[in-house]
Prior knowledge:
The complex is a heterodimer of chains A (196) and B (109).
Chain A: H1 19-27, H2 32-55, H3 58-74, H4 85-105, H5 115-125, H6 132-142, H7 146-156, H8 162-169, H9 173-194
Chain B: H1 21-63, H2 76-80, H3 85-90, H4 94-107
Amino acid sequence: MKREESNIVNSQGSLSVSDESIARLLCDDNHVEEAVRLIMKKYGEPLYWHIRRMVVAHDDAEDCLQETMINVYKYRSTYSNEYPLSSWLYKIATNESLKLLKNRAGFTMSVDDLGDSLKDSVREEASPDADETLILLQEAIALLPAKQKMVFNLRYYDDKSYEEIHQIVGDSVNTLKTNYHYAVQKIKDYILEHQL
Amino acid sequence: MKEFDLEGLSREMPYKMPEHFMDDMTNRVMSQIAGQRKQRKERKIVALFASAASVAAVALLFLHPFGTSGLNIPDYESISQCASVDELIQNMTAEDLGVYSMMSNYYGN
């Protein structure tokens, strides 16, 4: 593959190299490092924010993102081009986030029991000039069960279709729709209850 | 009942990402990957040497299937006969000879 093809930057300064090109590089042992670099450039930030919305603390998001990228390298042979590259990347990032939360929950608790501690972290992690409603929104998201949280974040922030969320999370589209509906209702109720 | 407009809300996050975080992360990931690739290469070389050694060992077994009978290893007696005692005594210093005669007397040789 020609190097020029994989380094196309558009007028907005963002990388416009196609996922197919990145996937081809990823499967080629001589270009795998270039592929990882391109993935970091194209998906690094969206993946960071996806992870951060799940784990809340920056330090945790940092560990998860690093582990995600190492797993992308390690398990590149498991990538199948019948799914979009972005879905595969989000799936790895989601699994890493859940792994971290499971470790935190330990044997005695479930990930869903971490809601209150994650909610407390939201305010600690928020910038001093952050909008109060945005903080409340993150608190409400932190209190959601993990599955509802994943579906809500992927749909609301990452604009993923239910089909894409199905590729990432694995549940049926109808189940995902139900999860999203419940998540939205809980978030609205929380914000209305806590808004001044 | 009052309805909250979630769709009208900004998608901004109330957190900030540290400056240069993505560049630092990219460098860290790339160096970790380079380390893993180096380790993999080293493992491959070790495996290659191990398999070459195994092949050599098997080949040696085929060439000399019943011990070392085919090999030309000199035995102790032939080594000891290489130099005569007289020759050795001629090359000794006066001090060595003194020690030698004392030891000879002691052991009765």
